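Hello Y.,

Per our agreement to keep a running log of every chain we model this quarter, I'm adding this entry. I've kept the format consistent with earlier entries: sequence first, then predicted structure.
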Amino acid sequence: MKKSLVVLIVIVAILAIIGIGIGMSYNEIVTLKEDISNEYSNIDVQLERRADLIPNLVNTVKGYVEHEEKTIEMITSARENLLKANTVDEKAKANEDLDNALNALMVVVENYPDLKANENFINLQDELAGTENRISTARRDYNETVKSYNTKIQKFPTNIIAKIFNFEKETYFEVEESKTENPTVDFS
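Predicted structure for the entry above:
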């Protein structure tokens, strides 16, 4: 009887250790998943900030470049697509389209020296440049968190828990290789 009690205690202890290990691994995965949501939200905040700046920038430019309606429409459309995007891939694509539209605007602006000297435009340009830096930082932080999560759910023994609870790989917030630099917003 003593021997069977010892065996039972050892089995219970082993099961308890395994259970605690599973619980800890599960909690780590959940924490990383929440970190991803938080970092994604940070990207969203910065993209929204950028989108909010654009109407002011467009209105400032409109007064100077009334005949450049195509460029302004392209920016407006890209901004709307960014605001409508829901997934990481949609937001990355919309962000890329907005980068292209803003780059086209900067080319137009180069032809209007009075606009480049306008105080409102200069302030908006500075705000936009700061926002571009914030977006870059938020995107980097998001991708680092996704990397940690994706690595965690692929490593043994956490990969077993990830499979049991259907944790799947997350998508990185990526841009085209040609778009790895922020748009140029230097008007000097």
